[in-house]
Every structure is written in C-alpha cells, then in structure tokens.
C-alpha cells in the first residue's frame, strides 16, 4: 500500500492521519517528530518491543511505513500534488537508512539470542521421558533437553549453527527466545537432513516426532519448522544446498479454521520447492477437532486399546 494523503497544516498530524488511514497506529504518537531524521516506533498490534514502524518527516513532506506488512504512506504540504523528484530521492534514501538500521538491530538481537541459546543448551540436562508434555503427546524426548520444568529444543540453520531455542512448559505453552532467529531455522527431530535421501518437514516438534513414529516416509530425515509460516523458508533452506533431495511437507489439517492455514502453507511450500504434501488421512469416525499427525496417532492408539 502506498498512499499520498491530502494537505494538513501540522506535519505530525498529517503523517499520523496518513498512518491511521493505512491501519498503522503508533503506540506512542510522540515518536513522530518533524526533524528530518529516521525514526522507528512500535505499532499497535505488534509484539511487545518490536519497532516495525518507521518514518522520516520534514516540515513540508514525509513518509512512513510498517516493515511487517510492507504498507507505506507519504504526506506533503502540497496536498494531492506529487512529491518533487528531490523529495522522493531524499525519502527513498531515508527509507533505505531505516531498513539498514532495522536489519542491523535485528542481526544484533539474533546474535545475542544465539549466545544465550548456546549457554542454555550447554547447561541443560537430558529431558525426563516422563515430562508431562511428552506424556500428553505420547512421544519420546528425542533431541529435547530440559532446564527446570521446561523442555528446550534447538533451532539450527542448514549449516549446523544453533540460533535459538523453543521452550515448552509442562502445560504445553511454548515460547521462543526473545530476539532469536526463526526464519529458515528448524528443530532436527530424526535423521540427518544433509545426508538422508528425503527430508520431511512438519510444523511442531510433537507433530514431526509423530510422523517419524508412524514411519510414513521411511528413511527420511525429519525436521520441525515450529509453525506453518516457517514451512516455506525451511523448505527453501533445505533445497538450496540439495537441489535433488526429495522434500515432503507434512501438513497440519486445520479443518475447522477458515482457509485451513496449515494445509495451505504446506501446499505453497511444496509447490515452491518441487516437493510433496503429506496430509493426515482421517479414518471414519475421527472427530473433526483432530488436526495434525499427533492427534491422529493418539486417536488411533486410543481406538486400538478401546476396540483391541
């Protein structure tokens, strides 16, 4: 989105009006200052601490946007008249500087989180096989370790560098290290994705481990992307050094969620890398609330015992 907003006497009010029309609402409007310098700000609805909003505002013109959505607006004291070539050039340069600052801050945060992850991972103990989350999911610990009562799972890149950790509490609540890199990183669950003839990618750790236990793709390495939004980046990261490897995307089948985001994301990832989609095959009588391969595995186990 790129909109020019009509004339407004006060440049701050004018740019705030533009941002509001575009659905970009600064949490602190005082962050918008007409001093010609690049500023970054938190946008309502973003995670706490994120500064995805940016702006550069002069007394007679300015621009602002939202890195996460890609929305961008401009304001000019000339009203609907286009910005001059010089103004556009200056704003584009400022936008590039804002992006450079953001990228540098993000990389620094990633590096800090990587150091924290390495320390936690080194000092963790092997996970208790009887941990409440593992017991509820019916899976072994695999690569999981434990600190306190939390499971911790490592997120690596394809070069084998540890970047972050996922923490799982006994009640199943999950969180990633603050500032940790996730995009294109994955949790190795079974096998070596650098050597196996096939690589299977699923969303969460429990789902990926369940696909492995069900032996649906024998001989494949299994990795967890953490969520459906990371399926495509992980698939691309796996494909890049191994153009001929077979890639299978194990989909969550979010049948009760509009748009079925799990299946949709799996299909998009598979198409992008020339892979395959594996979705749960629900037996007759399986409740609609079941959505992933862990649900399927547990339901089959319960039914087997019940009718055994």
From TrEMBL:
<dbReference type="GO" id="GO:0004386">
    <property type="term" value="F:helicase activity"/>
</dbReference>
<keyword id="KW-0067">ATP-binding</keyword>
<dbReference type="Pfam" id="PF13362">
    <property type="entry name" value="Toprim_3"/>
</dbReference>
<keyword id="KW-0347">Helicase</keyword>
<dbReference type="InterPro" id="IPR034154">
    <property type="entry name" value="TOPRIM_DnaG/twinkle"/>
</dbReference>
<protein>
    <submittedName>
        <fullName>Putative DNA primase/helicase</fullName>
    </submittedName>
</protein>
<keyword id="KW-0547">Nucleotide-binding</keyword>
<keyword id="KW-0378">Hydrolase</keyword>
<feature type="domain" description="Toprim">
    <location>
        <begin position="199"/>
        <end position="297"/>
    </location>
</feature>
<dbReference type="InterPro" id="IPR006171">
    <property type="entry name" value="TOPRIM_dom"/>
</dbReference>
């Amino acid at each position: 989105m790129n909109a020019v907003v009509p004339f407004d006497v006060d440049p701050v009010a004018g740019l705030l009006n533009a941002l509001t029309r575009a659905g970009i609402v600064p949490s602190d409007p005082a962050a918008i200052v007409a001093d010609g310098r690049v500023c970054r700000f938190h946008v309502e609805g973003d995670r706490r601490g994120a500064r995805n909003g940016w702006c550069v505002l002069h007394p007679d013109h300015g621009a602002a946007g939202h890195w996460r959505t890609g929305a961008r607006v401009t304001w000019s004291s000339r009203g609907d008249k286009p910005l001059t070539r010089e103004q556009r050039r200056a704003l584009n340069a400022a936008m590039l500087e804002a992006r450079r600052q953001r990228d540098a801050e993000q990389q620094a945060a990633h590096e800090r989180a990587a150091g924290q992850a390495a320390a936690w991972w080194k000092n963790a103990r092997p996970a208790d096989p009887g941990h409440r989350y593992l017991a509820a999911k019916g899976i072994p610990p695999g690569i999981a370790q434990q600190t306190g009562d939390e499971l911790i799972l490592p997120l690596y890149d394809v070069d084998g560098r540890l970047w972050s950790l996922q923490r799982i509490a006994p009640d199943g609540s999950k969180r990633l290290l603050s500032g940790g890199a996730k995009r294109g990183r994955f949790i190795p669950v079974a096998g070596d994705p650098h050597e196996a003839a096939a690589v299977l990618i699923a969303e969460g750790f429990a789902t990926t481990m369940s696909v492995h236990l069900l032996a649906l793709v024998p001989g494949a390495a299994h990795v967890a992307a953490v969520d459906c939004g990371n399926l495509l980046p992980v698939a691309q990261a796996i494909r890049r050094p191994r153009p001929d490897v077979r890639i299978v995307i194990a989909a969550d089948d979010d049948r009760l969620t509009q748009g079925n985001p799990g299946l949709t994301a799996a299909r998009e990832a598979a198409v992008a890398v020339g892979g395959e989609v594996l979705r749960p095959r629900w037996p007759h009588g399986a409740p609609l609330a079941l959505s992933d391969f862990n649900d399927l595995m547990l339901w089959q186990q319960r039914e087997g015992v019940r009718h055994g």
